[in-house]
Write a structure and sequence with these properties.
14 strands; 17% strand; alpha/beta; globular; 5-stranded parallel beta sheet
Amino acid sequence: MIRMFEYGSVPNETLFIRSPLFTDVGPVVAGILRDVKENGDEALFRLTEKYDGAKLSSLLVTEEEIEEAFASVSGEYRAVLQLAHDNIAEYHRCQIRPGFVMTRPNGVVLGQKVTPIERVGLYVPNGTAAYPSSLLMNCVPAKLAGCGMLVITTPPGRDGKIDPAILAAAKIAGVDRIYKLGGAQAVAALAFGTGSVPKVDKIVGPGNAYVAEAKKQVFGTVAIDTIAGPSEVLIVADESNDPAVVAADMLAQAEHDVMATSVLVTDSRRLAGAVAQELERQLALLPREAIARASIENNGKIVVAKDLEAAIECANEIAPEHLEICLDDAFSWLGKVKNAGSIFLGKHAPEALGDYLAGPNHTLPTTGTAKFGSPLSVDDFVKKSQYTYYSREALRDVKDALVLFAEEEGLRGHARSVGVRFGEAER
């Protein structure tokens, strides 16, 4: 059964989503990273056979394999993938922003230049389920940013093949290269480069504990997006909600993974009790019942708050990855939300919309990091450079202030670099 709490009667820490980002895999991952760095492709073939059970002759997915997979996917599903791609692109296109330039009197020009990251590696999980949606969510903003090369790694099955839906999505998204690689060894290949796999500048995409730990350990060698924890949803709902719908939304999250977290916060004891009963009834309807049940029983929570103000306060404390505000006047509460990765407003915007079709990104901050983190966006695939130009006249206008500032910090060389331009320091 799911656990129930009253908001304010237990320490807030009890309500926080504390699913561990990592298990104790650090030493194992460090060994894999070192192996790939030292042994390159040989290590990749060996580790892929060890961990994925696939004995490969080539790591690179061929054009023939992509075309075969694309043709094997039904036309109806290809159309859905294209619809998702187009909606994601439409939304993320609004995030594109150019640099800027500003001027001051006497010939000062200041600005910011926005440049795409040249090479990006995208990890696409393929464990208990395949996630072409994750591929689209990562690839589309990278393409819009103008990245020069998009490289995908995704685990092969024991037959050495990649799920056809993933390859179909990759074709639609315009991916440059796809490699049959999973786990920490895939992250290592992207971070260090091997004979077959090019070294990238940034690695993005979710994965299991080994992938998350590997991204953590290679940070600094390459950039990463975030260290993603298990997925989570928090639903704020009042008495007017259908308990069956609320329970269905919670289970949609729970079926992701045994570590996923589903939370209901409500001002209605009646709804709380009815949702608890619905969860038990609906669990039996899910093909992934064992996964969803473990998630609900270990991580699920129903929190009863005194009113909706307290419910939103509770949501802000938890800072969920996904926040559903299932209220008729949902927009009136939007301004009160301070901490959430992605917000779903009203009773007809289930979190599943965000997973697949709506357009906003589903790569989001987890485990409370929405207090300072943001969804994946076009900004994650660009870098910004500043530039400064001063005419001689403009520099003369500020030279005394510059010299004084530098000397106050004890950096006489800085001061001299200004004065020497005007004959005020020895050459």
